[in-house]
Design a protein that fits this description.
Layout lengths: L1 H6 L1 H4 L2 H36 L8 H16 L2 H7 L1 H8 L4 H26 L3 H9 L4 H12 L1 H22 L6 H11 L4 H29 L2
Helix pairs in contact: 3-4, 3-7, 3-10, 3-11, 4-7, 6-7, 7-10, 8-9, 10-11, 10-12, 11-12
Length: about 220
């Protein structure tokens, strides 16, 4: 404990707030992540099956979705935060704090994950889809039994990449008072020049990302054998 106070003197005085900030980061990542993964998976699948040659080919729907995803992916997250303030206030009741960060986090993550899903599904052997069609499987059955089942390792990698990206976005949300570790590091580490606070925040984020990556690798190794 003495060593910790020597290495991180400023952080030692703010441990309860640091713990709260860590919990806020987990909450923002988890809550917005679950919603983003559900919506992103749906959009990614829709993009895949409605494109030219897809099992539910629909040029209009595919084009609209594709352009919408591209538009949101090109907007820098810090600008998206400001752009969505009116919508965020309408949905969450506030545009600041942890609650205020959820809406822009979802808007920033869904397009990214949708593209990751589309990429993972595109790697699927087309012969499997043709075989399923020849056996009389419905589009829903093909999506569930072929696309999702056979692309599971790729989808897990997509989830991991998205979760890691989302952690980075939560830190960026801290720049505008979004709460979490990013906000904690900016208020104390940057604004008050307390470098030990910044260092501790970086270490925790690295450990969190490393844990997610290790967990992903372990799950993929289990389902691939």
């Amino acid at each position: 404990m003495q060593l910790f106070q020597t290495l991180f003197p400023n952080l030692a005085e703010k441990l309860p707030e640091f713990y709260d900030s860590f919990v806020q980061t987990l909450f923002m990542t988890g809550f917005s992540g679950v919603i983003s993964l559900v919506l992103g998976l749906f959009i990614g699948i829709t993009l895949t099956v409605t494109k030219k040659g897809g099992i539910l080919e629909n040029a209009v729907l595919s084009s609209v979705l594709d352009k919408t995803v591209n538009i949101f992916r090109t907007i820098p997250f810090i600008i998206l935060l400001a752009l969505l303030i009116p919508l965020t206030r309408m949905i969450a009741g506030t545009a600041i704090g942890t609650k205020g960060a959820i809406v822009p986090l979802i808007f920033g993550t869904v397009p990214f994950f949708a593209r990751q899903v589309e990429t993972a599904l595109a790697e699927l052997d087309k012969g499997l889809i043709e075989a399923a069609l020849s056996m009389g499987n419905s589009p829903i059955e093909i999506i569930r039994r072929v696309y999702l089942k056979e692309s599971l390792p790729g989808l897990i990698r997509a989830v991991t990449i998205t979760a890691i990206s989302l952690i980075g976005l939560t830190a960026m949300a801290g720049a505008v008072g979004g709460g979490g570790l990013g906000d904690f590091a900016i208020r104390y580490g940057h604004q008050r020049n307390q470098t030990d606070v910044t260092l501790a925040t970086v270490i925790v984020l690295i450990l969190l990302v490393s844990f997610l990556q290790s967990l992903s690798n372990w799950i993929i190794s289990k389902i691939s054998h």
